[in-house]
Every structure is written in structure tokens, then in C-alpha cells.
Design brief:
With 242 residues, the chain is an alpha/beta fold. The chain has a domain at 3-86 and 154-237: Rossmann fold. It has helices spanning 41-49, 71-77, 94-101, 108-121, 123-127, 138-150, 168-177, 181-185, 196-202, 220-223, 227-237; strands at 3-12, 15-25, 30-34, 56-61, 64-65, 79-82, 156-160, 188-192, 205-210, 213-219. The longest helix has 14 residues, at 108-121.
Length: 242
């Protein structure tokens, strides 16, 4: 088991968010977490990446509990998050943003090789390598955010709402990139998405979160038959691939 989250509880002060959340991710999988706003999805990713310390529970990467370790150490061990809203460094160039993604690494020559790999895989980043982050479109910023996360050479890449604010054409581009991440870069993906069409198109398994708890789970074909998933998503989507 690559990533194993067991009975995680989180809170912001007196406000409880995640309530006994457990999930697993095997190497090479794309696993999605769906759920309404406020369900605790992003908070769970923050806990997994070390940005928020759980009040109880364990998070194991390759069998080792990483709860309580600082975020930079968790990133060094192989869990990297691409946050909602991109959050690139607006005043830095594309190449500078990419190099900052590798801040936990010491292999300088290979870092430069990886910058080249990102520019080759995401051609727009090569074309815009000297542009400031603020000069990029929303879609270009999302590509940069994903590439910056991959620069850390993660074992697990946490993607938080990568389609948020993107046009349908750019969502389609993200849909093509996500399934390629393990093959091209060796990173397993845990995906939080509101766009159920994207999630159903790329994931092998899914979890549904509601009110801070897991309300359904299973292989993606069976997951689409969970009553709450159908009520929340499929009624207004039409079909899982929509």
C-alpha cells in the first residue's frame, strides 16, 4: 500500500472537519475524492501533506506514519500537493517557479534536466519560460502548478480542484494530462474534484465525502451507482463521462 489514511480527525479550533476518514491509494492508481463544498476534502489533503496536523489518526506512506512531520519533510519523503487556486509565485518567472518546486532536492544537474522535461511535456511552459507567473492565463498557471509539483519527484501527487475556473477546453486538457502523470513522471495521483465528469473520466476508484466523513467508496464503475453520488452528481451530469 503506497498511501494509507486511517481514522483521520481534523479541526480548526473548535470546528471539527474530518471525522474518522480512512482511505487507501495503491501505487499507479488515480483515486478521486468527490463531495460538496465544505465536505472536508481540501482539509484532508492539507492533513496528508502536513499543512494541518490531524487531531488523531495515522497517515502512512509506504508503511511509515508521517503525521506530525513538517510539510517540507513530507514533501521530501514523497507527498506533494498542488493546491486549489494554483498559488504560483506571480512575481517569478516560469523557470523560477519550476526550480522552486524542487526546493527539497539537492541533485542540481538533474533538477535542470527536469526543468527541460517539464518544458517538453508542457510546451506552453517552454514558450513562456521567461514570463512572470502573473502574465500567464489561468490554464497556463494550472499547467505550471502541476509541473511545479512534479519537480519534487513525488510518489503521491495531491491535486486539489485542478479544473477549478478553467474553460471546458482546458478541462479537457487536464483530463488528458492526469492519466499520464504516473507513466511520464512516476507519481500516483489522489484527486479532489468538484467536476464529476473529469473525476469519472480519469480515476480507477472513488470516495465520496459528506459532512467530513466517507459516505461511499468503490471502483469507479460501481461508485457511480452509489445513491448519494447519483443524487449529487449524476442527475445533473447525465452520464459519468459527461
Amino acid at each position: 500500500m503506497l498511501l494509507e489514511v486511517t481514522d483521520i480527525h481534523t479541526s480548526y479550533g473548535p470546528i471539527r472537519v474530518n471525522r474518522g476518514v480512512s482511505l487507501t491509494v495503491d501505487e499507479g492508481e488515480i483515486v478521486t475524492i468527490l463531495g460538496p463544498n465544505g465536505a472536508g476534502k481540501s482539509t484532508l489533503l492539507r492533513a496528508i501533506s502536513g499543512l494541518l496536523r490531524p487531531t488523531s489518526g495515522t497517515i502512512r506512506l509506504n508503511g511509515e506514519n508521517v503525521v506530525g512531520r513538517p510539510p517540507d519533510e513530507i514533501a521530501k519523503r514523497g507527498i506533494v500537493m498542488v493546491p486549489e487556486g494554483r498559488r504560483i509565485f506571480a512575481a517569478l518567472t516560469v523557470q523560477e517557479n519550476l526550480r522552486l518546486g524542487a526546493y527539497t532536492r539537492k541533485d542540481r544537474n538533474q533538477i535542470e534536466e527536469d526543468v527541460g522535461r517539464m518544458e517538453a511535456y508542457f510546451p506552453v511552459l517552454g514558450q513562456k519560460r521567461s514570463a512572470k507567473g502573473r502574465e500567464l492565463s489561468g490554464g497556463q498557471q494550472q499547467m505550471l502548478a502541476i509541473a511545479r509539483g512534479l519537480m519534487a519527484r513525488p510518489h503521491v501527487l495531491l491535486l486539489d480542484e485542478p479544473s477549478l475556473g478553467l474553460s471546458p477546453l482546458l478541462v479537457k486538457e487536464v483530463r488528458g494530462i492526469v492519466p499520464d502523470i504516473y507513466k511520464q513522471f512516476g507519481a500516483t495521483v489522489l484527486l479532489v474534484e468538484q467536476n464529476a465528469g473529469l473525476a469519472f473520466a480519469v480515476a480507477q476508484r472513488g470516495y465520496l465525502m459528506n459532512n467530513g466523513q466517507i459516505a461511499g467508496a468503490g471502483p469507479i464503475a460501481e461508485f457511480s451507482k452509489v445513491k448519494l453520488v447519483q443524487e449529487m452528481y449524476l442527475g445533473r451530469m447525465g452520464t459519468p463521462g459527461g
